[in-house]
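Researcher: Here's a chain I'd like modeled. Treat it as a single chain, no partners, no ligands.
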Amino acid sequence: MSCLPEVNPCLLCFGPPIQRARLCHEITGAFVDELRHKKCIEAIVEASKPLASVTVASGQREELREIVMDAMYSLEERWGKKSLNKSLQEAVSTIWKKLSQLEKVPACIPPCGFQRAARVFQCATCRFVDCQFALDCPVQDLWTYTDETIVLRCNVPFHIPPGVPITWMFAPNLRTQDMALFKELKGNPEKPFSLTIEEPAPGTVACRLGEQTKPIIRKFFYLNVSEGSVEEEKGLQSLFSTVLNWDDETPTHIPYLGLALGFGSMAFVLLLMVSWQCLNVRQMRRRRGHQGTQEDSRPLDSV
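Model: Modeled as a single isolated chain. Structure tokens:
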């Protein structure tokens, strides 16, 4: 490393610097302190820089090493037939071609869980990198009734090894992710990924995939339990749906009947208004007639 401070980290993953120094010595016949040797090392470093972006599945690290090292050894076979730069270009092209034939790495699926199948090997850092997700999933809210039977599932959207143990737990009257507050429940051995709860009570239900010391994922379900009956709720929902679908289910003659009722109501209101006006007119006429009789009688009395 002290002799080759600019060597791309990807090359350091697959052999010590002395291995590349030996390769350049065999290609050029020059020693480490000679200019030709240094030029060879610089050319290899420059050609390998694009490999810093390479990531493969964790199980493909050995294949990546073989691909890179085979390309490096091919430089010796090309020496004397082609220039060093030309040989390096062909070697890198061969590396990319073989990498394209490797199986693609599964993508990380949010939001939680240790997804081993998505672990990758980074050529730039020579390290394995996992998905940067928490083991604990966000709490899911579920609404139910005291007389309702519910089924919870501990399924995950990513691959898990077969035979992984599953543990169900419950923390009554709490919305929490503190594992110290949970008590283990008895699951169904025949259907370990599901939990059937009759007469649910308020609290948080949790499921854990994997051993307690090495969990793969933890899922949480908070039960919002309401008093009452689920049958009553279904009845209200049915009634509400009937009201919403009234226009679709109403026969075609119903709109005409409604229109006729509307016009009838308007006519009735108009009739009441006309009747009221007529009564007012009659009362006014009576008053005027009464006043006229009194005025006609006054001159007779005076005579």
